[in-house]
Amino acid sequence: MDDWIYYSNISDGGKIYKVNVDGTGRKKINDVMSSYVNVVGDYIYYSNSKDKNRIYKLSKFNTNASYPGQRLTYDSAAYIVVDGDRNKIYYSNTSDARRLYSIDLNGNNRTKFLTVSSQTSPGVRYLSLTNDGIVYATGLDGKLYKTISYNRVSPVYFTSEVQVKTKGGTITKSVEDKLSVINAVTNNDIFYSSYVDGRKIYKLGVSSGTKIIDDLATAINIAGITYFI
After folding, report:
1. Which of 16, 64, 95, 169 has its CA 20 to 30 A from that of 117?
2. CA distance 213 to 215
3. What is the predicted pLDDT for the residue at 26?
């Protein structure tokens, strides 16, 4: 980010600010409540609450805070993730039952994602983008989904290896789980908050998840091999 931190400033109504990594040079970038802020290349992508949470694109060098930037879609959007390498923005479209959609970085080629075997799709949240461009998302049904083509998603079937106390001691049991927060780095490095185990952090392997730590997590970010919760 060129030694700048960009953030939604809750102390000033969620407006976008930037500050040097040493805490100096604090500047306001826009003047509207902004959510799901992504900074990719020279632009900031965000959900503009003043315009029905539609996606906007704003230069990170903007000096006129009253200018909100370019509106990219008329959809109301949540859980925005931006893939600058592949010219895509993915989002949960709250104008269409929170289904997964994508547009190009200039707002073109709006695409609805459908499940493999039908002409419908689940509502999704907690989108996460892997290094190789695959999007994982938590369905409103609690299942994990991933993109498998330009307009298709497929459920990912797995169990969580949960420790269960019995009269004879503690055993490990494979149970179906529901997901909330996720963070996917690669297909083999997917971290999630387990519903059946009190929102503790698990890592998903080929077909099952194993616990990483007993702490309750409401958000997960990955830096190298360090987990921020």
Report:
1. 95
2. 6
3. 96
